[in-house]
Amino acid sequence: MYYIMSSITRSKSHISVLMSAINPLANPRGAKKQCELCQNLAYLQCIKCRVTFYCDTEHQQADWVGIHEKICQLLIPIRTATPFHSLQTDRDHHRAQILHRQEELIEISRAVAQKKLFEGKYQESLPAAQLSLRCAMDVYGPSAVQLVPAYLLLAEANVGLGSLAQAEGYLSQAEWTVMKTPECSQTVRHQLHRNLGRLYTATENLEGALLHFANDVYYASEEYGLDNIVTCGGYFLMANVFIKQEKMDIASSLYTEVASTWHSHLTKLLETHTPGSMTLEHSFDEAQQAEADQMLRAMLKVQESSPKQAAAQNALVAHSLAMLGFLGGSPDKALEFGRKALQSSQLVPDHSLREPIQSLLQLAAERGPHPTIAS
User: Fold this and answer.
1) 128-156 pLDDT, tens per residue?
2) Long-range CB contact pairs, 32-35, < 8 A, 24+
3) What's this model's pTM, rounded to 2 decimal places?
4) Least C-beta-crowded within 10 Å: which of 104, 253, 317, 374?
């Protein structure tokens, strides 16, 4: 590990984590520190920021992996006592700085939680999602619509962990907040219905899930358009429900829509790409990269296991994964899926993607094991 920890007891002093015991005499009379994750009485503190506390080493390590490593230093000015300023202008300036840092913290924690969710790391996503909710409450108040994205992250994590009652509680809170906020954005509404669809899928209410995913697509298309990478996430989830219903033709049609949307988007990125001048982060964030990888891999797996394999569709999805790998700085991934795409394209006479696939393979081979584009 990259950090050193001394425990509250001598017997744990060998544990390599970034902690020290809290000195009770350093706290104001009657003040007690709470654990960052469970809000129980804390006995340990982070020795780097010294403003974050934990009940035990297990929660410290969970928080470090989940979010704290990325935001440790950002917490210091936010959680440190406000210095005295005699002038009102100085006090206003300090408050504006703190607000800016809090908003930054909300965005970082949301992005980290979402990326972990797309990667299937549901337990790891919880600290970031919880932090996002607490910060949003501090900035916007306990009933603001700005809390909804954090509720949805927590709901998605709990669906993934099988804690459906907890997920339902978070979604009820999000749904109530949206209902009493008529000016709520289309983005928040599509995210709400997407997560309700996930919950209904997990409880095997498949018709209810399809209804929510249809609403998800509607609101997303109103905000982003039909042929958009955000909107097609709803199509992908609908397709998975139709697979559960053994309606493979409908699922295949929706998968085709998803694959075509991502292929078109990645092709445009590749066409404007020049070495060293662009990364995927300029076009979409890490969470969207993880979402694309998860969706495309899942579709390819389903298609390859289908008795009615469509070589042209396999080539399209594999080529998309190859472009995603190349633009993300992974030439090995580009070569792996590029070869799969080429093999599938060769089964289709005069396939239009054969030449672009071959060009990408050449670029990936030239890039080799030392990519110049950071992921």
Assistant:
1) 999 999 999 999 999 999 999 999 999 99
2) 35/59
3) 0.84
4) 374
